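Appendix B. Raw example, untouched.
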Amino acid sequence: MTNQTAHPAAPVADRPPVRLFFTILQLTALGVLGAIAFSILTGLFATGIALTFVFGIGLIFLVGLVYAMYGVAWFEVARVSGLYDLNLPTLRWRRRTRPGFGGWLRSLGRQAVDGPMWRALANFVLACLAGALILRLFWGMIWSAITAFAPLTLEGTVAGPYGSEILVAWAPLVGILGVVISAAAIVGLALLHRVITRALVVPSREAELTEQVRTTSAQREGAVRAADVERTRIERDLHDGVQPRLVSVGMTLGLAQQKIDEDPAKAKELISEAHTSTKAAITELRQLARGIHASVLDDRGLDAALSALAGRSHIPVHLDVRMEGRCSRDAEAAVYFAIAESLTNAAKHSRASDCRVIVRRRENGVLWARVEDNGMGGAQIQPGGGLDGISNRVLAAGGTFRLDSPQGGPTSLEVSVPCAS
């Protein structure tokens, strides 16, 4: 007896005929909607150019054009990824490299020349053109089907394309050929769309490897930079805080030892002072250790760790954490210390009276957090500073870091880190 292994049937949407049908359906829809989208984009461009010299009003339309193009490109990437099950990365807006209006303007300019966005737009335009052709071919198919039954009209000739006339005797043959050619052309356009999409939207293997190398290099540099900043901070805290206090404790105990025989009361007072300083040093060491690693993060998770962090804050913190399950240790640690640094800055420098922390685990497997305070703003990433260390730590975890702190406030910080980092 021959053993036969049963293979599970492919999902209906993954079967070639069904996928071909959905491709034709989507292209047909784009043939109608594409004209509307193209009219909006060209209208924004024309209006922006025409009004640029009228108090700069046209610049608003040009900014809107960039956002509209990004929206169309994002839709196109999501459409072809779902249609062909390509698992393409979601098109993302180019992140800011600097805070404030200047940082936004730079990100807008970089987005306007973003290669993946333009390739997706090109694919969208070609898909709309293919959809318009498919609509004409559908009309030709309907006309051909009607022509095939022309002998039933008992007329001598039947109207053909471009004002021509076809003998009724030839009408069935012409109609059948028209149906076959139209159907073949529709299928051909659908297959061509897949080929063009893979060429334009799907990154090549070389491009993927280049991007992986670039990302890995950036993460490695971020990790090295974050470790260097963290080491400098620990050295500074030890040198400026704990070390002088321990030296003072040693000197105080030395004085107490000299006074213990001739002035026991004074020696007792000095020992009490040294005891107080020792407890303060222990507290500083605990705070320093907590800045290196929060043990509650491993034991009870990010929600509990942030609750403890908010409880120690000198300003009121409104905490809103909604996440199911746990993320990786590196991802949670990166988000935790980013929030901790933001709360520290809000308490020390921004003169804030209120702070809000929002944390979400999104469906795409990203741990996202936002911290906002109502302080005076003006926060900047200084080399070697706390925000510099946090940004590099987030980068090392494969995430993104965005700071927006205009003069006068408010200050907001957003962090997105892959849960599996």
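End of appendix B.
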